[in-house]
Design goal:
3-stranded antiparallel sheet
Length: 73
């Protein structure tokens, strides 16, 4: 799954207060992609906060059918 700004979601961790998503910038160049995976970014969201997500043709997981998914505005 990806964020709406094109970052691939690597992992998600939740606790009682926040959701932390580790993301990285994917690349079609394998060397660049590997380098980017070594320098991920962690984004922190409040639990229940709506987060813009996107599904691209190469997305491994499509979250559009998730119970909390909301369609385009």
């Amino acid at each position: 799954m990806s964020t709406e700004d094109g970052q691939d979601v690597v992992s998600v961790f939740c606790n009682d207060d926040v959701v932390m998503a580790t993301v990285y910038t994917p690349s079609d160049d394998p060397d660049v992609d590997e380098g980017n995976r070594c320098e991920p970014e962690t984004r922190i969201y409040d639990r229940g906060e709506l987060v813009g997500m996107a599904t691209f043709p190469n997305s491994a997981v499509d979250g559009a059918s998730h119970d909390f998914a909301v369609g385009p505005a």
